[in-house]
Amino acid sequence: MKNTFLILLGVSLMLTSCAQKNSSPKLINKQVSMNNNDTTPVVKTEEEWKHFLTPEQYHVLREKGTEAPFTGKLLKNKDTGVYTCAACGNELFTSEMKFDSHCGWPSFDKEIAGGKIKKHVDSSFGMVRNEITCAKCGGHLGHLFDDGPTETGARYCVNSLSIDFKKQ
User: Fold this and answer.
1) Which letter, b or e, does each residue of 66-101 get, where b requires 16 or more Cβ atoms within 10 Å of its Cβ?
2) What is the CATH number of the domain that holds 97?
3) How far apart are CA 166 and CA 168, in angstroms?
4) Alpha-helical segments (H) within the chain
C-alpha cells in the first residue's frame, strides 16, 4: 500500500513538473554529431528482458513506467562521460548536454546525433507529450519537452533507471 502511494505520488509529481505547455507537441529533434553509429536493432523477448533487467528497470524501460522524482542515481551526477541506454548500451547523451532542470529527473538539452533516440506522441494520463525511446532496443527513456532553458529550447527528461553512465 505504501509503495503504491509512493508510485502514484511520483507519477503525479512527474505529470505536474514535466507537463508540456501546449497540447499539440512538435517532435523536437535537437542533436549533436558523435562517431558511435551502430544502429543494429537489439531484439529480445519480454522474458529475456525480465532476466536481463532489474524489476525496476524492466518497469521503466519495457512497461513505460516512471521512477519517483529526485530518487535517480544519475540525477546529480556531474562527472564527465557518456550516458547510454541501460538495456542495450546505445550512446544517447554526453555530460556536456546535461543540465539541472529541477524537475526531479536527469535532463539534457540535446541528444547524440545519428538517430539514437526515437520520438513518439504519448497521449497517456490525459496529456499530450513527446515520448523518447532508444532507437536500438525500443526502451522507454522518458519525455521530451520544449521548455528547456538553453539555446536548444529542448529538455529531455530521462529516468535514471533507463540509462547508465560511462565515465571518461
Assistant:
1) bbbbeebebbebeeeebbbbbbbbbbbbbbebbeeb
2) 2.170.150.20
3) 6
4) 2-17, 46-52, 55-63
The three cell numbers of residue 106 are 536527469
* 25 has pLDDT over 80: no
Note if 157 is an active site residue. Answer: yes
- Which residues of the chain form beta strands (DSSP E)? 31-32, 81-85, 91-94, 98-99, 107-108, 111-112, 117-122, 129-134, 140-145, 155-158, 163-167
Catalytic residue among 85, 103, 137, 157: 157
pLDDT in tens, 50-85: 999 999 999 999 999 999 999 999 999 999 999 999
Domains in the chain, number: 1
Give the domain extent around 33. 2-167
